[in-house]
Design brief:
With 432 residues, the chain is an alpha/beta fold. It is built from eleven helices and 14 strands. Strand 4, helix 4 and strand 5 form a beta-alpha-beta unit. The structure holds adenosine-5'-triphosphate (ATP) and magnesium ion.
Length: 432
């Protein structure tokens, strides 16, 4: 617990405020107590970032019923709130706790107060630290996406550079060195070479950050991330997980799959501001030709991750654009529009596909198909970008995306160059 605590005390007797401060100090809690006597003063005091806890005498003449609690929860839901009273009747205690009060302590003896304050502040600090970690995890996912975006741009830029460099080389061959134009073209060629080197470095950098694949159980990933998801979605959302032990391993970087789950859970939370149900389930499915093509994957055994919410759902125009980078329907500062795009990029890199079912007012289901390792063949961990994962048995096969630089080719005797492009990713497999 970080001390000294900054304590707001809603209390009309200054003597009583001093007694509270003394009770906390005598139990080793260093604190500063600020007396508050009116609703306006409370609002003003809650503005300060460092407020640790609010202690409120009940009943207080200036605050009707439990209005002090409601104001505090409204302005600072993260700050614990404790009622102090000489007597609590059962009905009002239930109302206080239901409305978010952390605890109720009896006066005049304040022997319980230090214990209650210490526990409330420690729990809040723990919750805040977890929230910070969750945010960092989501942000790390977004940085991963920025890396992928950079790789995509670098790849396309490379195609253009191949044309610039190829044609300037062609011109240099045609123009005598003594011609002043030759000097200018050489400058173009040099700048083009430097740009190509820079692009190569960008591609190398993003490849190094492509994740480390290994054989992992989807079940274990979901079980590991469950607590984080629970904290991410908050108390208003009921989280249900359904795991199926028959789901065999998949080849993946578990951290990246965790990011997919966190992104989908964050979206589900945002789609259920008043609360609802979020279900995360794993199962196995042997996809035949038609179902596989709907999911944009190869036929065969798949591990399926299903994320379902009972939220607002999406209309047709949102569904059509949801996987686009930077597409968001959230207000400025609330969404970057990279969550689903990054999820899609990760799934696609693993040879998987996504099917989305959503209707306005009827919730959303994301069904994600990952190729399953169908027999015990040990697959070595390899770099994602130059990987061609082959599954054994009748498991699905899919060539992984590569970022190979384009090749410039010229037929003998011809002055025309043709670009043989690097491998591009297959068309998106999403289906709304
Ligand atoms: N479960 C869902 N329910 C309803 N709408 C959704 C759901 N998931 C995604 N969407 C819609 O798709 C849009 C794009 O989602 P995406 O996760 O890519 O970005 P975002 O959530 O807006 O921002 P962020 O980058 O912070 O995740 C959302 O703005 C929302 O309109
Ligand atoms: Mg999102």
């Amino acid at each position: 617990m970080r001390t000294p605590l900054s304590v707001i005390v809603i209390e009309d007797s200054l003597e009583e405020v001093k007694r509270i401060e003394a009770a906390l100090t005598s139990e080793g809690i260093s604190c500063h107590c600020q007396q508050v006597n009116t609703p306006a003063d409370l609002v003003a005091a809650l503005v300060y970032e460092d407020v640790s806890i609010v202690l409120s005498h009940y009943p207080h003449p200036a605050f009707e019923g439990i209005s002090a609690l409601k104001t505090t929860k409204d302005k600072r839901p993260d700050v614990p709130f404790v009622f102090l009273s000489t007597a609590f009747d059962e009905e009002s205690t239930v109302e206080m706790l239901k409305s978010g009060a952390t605890d109720c302590v009896l006066k005049p003896c304040l022997c319980m107060l230090a214990l209650v304050v210490r526990r409330a502040v420690a729990e809040t600090e723990g919750r805040n630290a977890r929230k910070q970690l969750e945010t960092m995890l989501v942000e790390a996912g977004k940085m991963e996406v920025v890396g992928r975006l950079t790789a995509g741009i670098a790849h396309d830029f490379n195609n253009l550079l191949a044309v610039i460099n190829g044609y300037s080389d062609l011109l240099l061959e045609k123009i005598p060195e003594t011609d002043p134009v030759s000097r200018d073209v050489r400058q173009i060629s040099l700048a083009g070479d430097r740009a190509a080197k820079l692009t190569r470095e960008l591609l190398d950098f993003t490849r190094r950050h492509g994740g480390h694949q290994k054989a992992v159980k989807l079940n274990s990933i979901v079980a590991d991330v469950e607590m984080l998801v629970r904290h991410l979605v908050g108390e208003k959302v009921r989280l249900i997980t359904k795991l199926d032990p028959r789901v065999a391993s998949i080849m993946a970087d578990p951290t990246l799959i965790e990011q997919v789950i966190m992104n989908l859970a964050a979206n589900a939370r945002d789609a259920m501001p008043g609360g609802g149900i979020l279900q995360i389930a794993c199962c196995a499915d042997n996809l035949q030709e038609e179902a596989a093509s709907a999911a944009g994957v190869m036929p065969g055994h798949h591990a399926v991750l299903t994320v379902t919410d009972t939220g607002s759902g999406m209309d047709e125009s949102t569904k059509a654009r949801m996987f686009e980078p930077f597409f968001t329907t959230k207000e400025a500062g609330k969404g970057t529009g990279l969550g689903l795009w990054s999820a899609f990029e990760i799934v696609e890199q693993l040879g998987g596909g996504i099917i989305v079912e959503s209707e306005p007012g009827r919730g959303t289901t994301f069904r994600i198909y990952f190729p399953m390792i169908t027999c015990g063949e040990a697959l070595s961990t390899r770099q994602t970008n130059d990987l061609e994962v082959r599954k054994c048995g009748d498991g699905p096969r899919r060539k992984q995306r590569e970022l190979r630089p384009p090749v410039l080719a010229r037929s003998p005797g011809s002055s025309e160059y043709t670009i043989l492009p690097g491998h591009r990713p297959p068309a998106s497999s999403q289906k709304a």
